[in-house]
Amino acid sequence: MDSLTPKQKQFYDSLISFFRRHQRLPSHREAADINGLQSKNSSLQYHQALEEKGYLERDESGNYRFTSAVDIWPGSDEAGTSIPVLGEITAGAMQEAVQADLGEITFSHLFPNVENVFALRVKGMSMSGLDISDGDYVLLSKTELRNGDVGAVLYNGETTLKKVHKEKDRIRLKPANPEFDDLVIEPDEAEEVQTLGKYLGHINQHGLFKSPY
What we know:
Blueprint: H1 6-22, H2 28-34, H3 40-52, E1 56-58, E2 64-66, E3 82-84, E4 104-106, H4 107-110, E5 117-121, E6 137-141, E7 150-155, E8 158-167, E9 170-174, E10 183-185, H5 187-190, E11 194-204, E12 207-210
Antiparallel strand pairs: 1-2, 3-4, 5-6, 6-11, 7-8, 7-11, 8-9, 9-10, 11-12
Helix pairs in contact: 2-3
């Protein structure tokens, strides 16, 4: 896929944004209006340029669609970091379905103080009791751990994800899998334990899961 000019990239991003809200590409008139173009012909020219560079293709009916090489769903690089809110749904009595553009949910809505959030990839199954498996990505916040919190710690040059229990002067690192043993750090070494982050949730192929704690 060839690189886009700044104007082509802006036009292309507007197509992605519209698609994520409406699950379809805009018409040439809609695309022209969104981008402040004077005519549908200008929109057509942008579509043709995107087709030539491999970002769009035409189906059997001649309608444009994204190519298979483009991932336009939330979470991908092209989609950005927000999810469209397409309307309201009742949790009480039934009501008429009304579609509306109510903005977007961003990562900061899911995790306050998102600037302090980072991720680590999990290796091992000691936290499977929380449905955290090998290969998952845990989301951690750069905050101190309270007694019983799940978090990432650094000890003796090694890192681990465990429930952290403070017992008098010693620290117990407890797995969420009964097949693994607790790691008990005695008082003379407890000061060497460094907190890396508190567990907020994890991400895997099934989606995003927030911490129940």
